[in-house]
Amino acid sequence: MSLINLGPGQTLLIKASRIWRGTPSPPQEGLIYVQGGKVIAISAGNDPEEYLCTDHSREPVPVLELPNCTVVPGFIDCHVHLALDGRDFSRAQQQWTARGELLERVKADLTSTLERGIVAIRDGGDRAGIGLEVKQLVITGRLAGPLVLACGHALHRQGKYGSFLGPGLTPGELEKAVDSLARQGVDHLKILVSGIVSFSEYGRVGGPQFTREELQRIVYRARSRGLKVMAHASGDDAVRLAVEAGVDSIEHGYFISEESLHRMAAQGIAWVPTVIPVAGQVRGKLRAQYTAREIEVITRTWRRQVEMIKKALEMGVTLGVGTDAGATGVCHGQGFLEELLLYREAGLSPADILLAATRNGAAILGLEHLLGRIEPGRPAFLVAVEGNPWEDVSALARVKYVFRPARSFI
């Protein structure tokens, strides 16, 4: 994989066998003319002469030929945790106070993410504010990585699940907590509406942490601050509460009901199902730590989630792709293709999967003006893969080039 940072004065003509622009239409052979980190023009066919004919005072435009490759918009992971490494939860937490070691690990994780064509990530928070700090390090150029949107720490009820994600709150502290995060410059808000899914008892989930009225107060305050709200919600009770409160996206959503999906579609609430953090528990080395009963419960859980993804698409719910990278067994960057292949197992077409990984993700992050499509005037966040992912989504594993502007657009 080659990473190409497109500088302010740089021009480049990309000649590819296929270009997929981030629309429901299939890819076509064509040319992309890039200048100053932005897409200037796209044309069908393969004749670059109109772009190469410059006046004698200018340098000729370099041409990058990509035979048997497809250029697509950069991918978006809608749910990660930069403060965790996906390998050792306790060790990752210890690094929070060992800054040098932490930054070395984060640097490697950001590189791994970019190498897989992921050009933007949305961090789901941590108690130490590491995701927010990494965002600033990327913006200032001290770390190389994808665009980072961060929520600082997550909001959860005092004494309930989520102590590693943020300080627990009492009902009287909700608005104050939102205001504090807004002053810190967060990009969105994260609420823990439920606990986590049981691996020993099928269908059991930690119960709701907030009442509907409390969630509505949080969402209302976030809206007044211009912040979107992502809601960690598993168990249909928690999902319903989050939907009634008017959040922007449901994260995880294990044991979601068809009724909740209908409501989400009607209200324009997106779903980020994060299948791989559960499915991955019964794959590879992790499987050995579970009993036969637990393996059965985990397998039933993720397979039900896959079935609901197909139903959500049919109902018109906007699906994003989130890996929960940093969760045990999900290393940064590596889980993205695995998540996409689970969407394929759900019965989604390559076109549906590509849209979820690009255009839908851009909308969920509130970056639809920057990401998710290849169009003149937009920043050139592009990925070239070998093969045709429109026919076989596994081609997305063969990333050849990642293109991105040299400066941040956030």
From TrEMBL:
InterPro entries: Amidohydro-rel (IPR006680), Metal-dep_hydrolase_composite (IPR011059), Metal_Hydrolase (IPR032466), Metallo-dep_Hydrolase (IPR051781), OTAase-like (IPR057744). Residues 70-402 form the Amidohydrolase-related domain. Pfam families: Amidohydro_1. CDD domains: Met_dep_hydrolase_A (cd01299). Signal peptide: none annotated. PANTHER family: ALPHA-D-RIBOSE 1-METHYLPHOSPHONATE 5-TRIPHOSPHATE DIPHOSPHATASE. This is Imidazolonepropionase-like amidohydrolase.
